Amino acid sequence: MNKELINRLIEEAKEIASRNFCCTHSNFTVGAALLTNEGKIYKGFNIENDGIQSICAERVAFAKALSEDNQKFTCIAVVGKKLTAKEFKKTLPCGYCRQFMSEYVDKDFIIYTYDDIENKLYTYSLNELLPESFNL
Ligand SMILES: [Zn+2]
What are the tens digits of pLDDT across the range 17-57? Predict the structure, then answer.
């Protein structure tokens, strides 16, 4: 994956996270930018509500892509920060999202996250984050 594309995904994830108006329960905004094999980018932010039906940014991005008939994915960038913070911090998919993603991607699917304070990009394969996923 070329560096420019990774940077673009990180910036897209930050951009959508910065527009999040649905995370007033946690006051923590997460942005995700999902890249398809055809080079299309689907973005999502975490959507929270008063019940227990909140949706993470990663699954929002996947749901948008899947519902538009995109089924092959290369990687996803995820970033998060407190609403009051300027800097994004290293943010990785929760367990639920890891399992969800594992049902639509290969084990070598890549997850990127970026920490503004450390000025560092982190790269993981899904297999590293979820070595033993549930399968039927
Ligand atoms: Zn999640």
Answer: 999 999 999 999 999 999 999 999 999 999 999 887 899 99
Q: Which residues are catalytic?
A: 58
CA of 56 to the centre of ligand 1 (A): 4
What the block records as the tokens of 66 is 């899947």
Domain residues of the chain, as ranges? 3-128
Q: Is the pLDDT of residue 62 over 90?
A: yes
Domain 3-128 in CATH 3.30.565.10? The answer is: no
Task: Using alpha carbons, select from 30, 117, 122 the residue that is nearest to residue 82.
Answer: 30
Q: Predicted confidence band at 134 (pLDDT cuts at 50, 70, 90)?
A: confident
Instruction: Dig out the tokens for 123 from the structure.
Output: 């790269």
Pairing of strands 73-82, 89-90: antiparallel
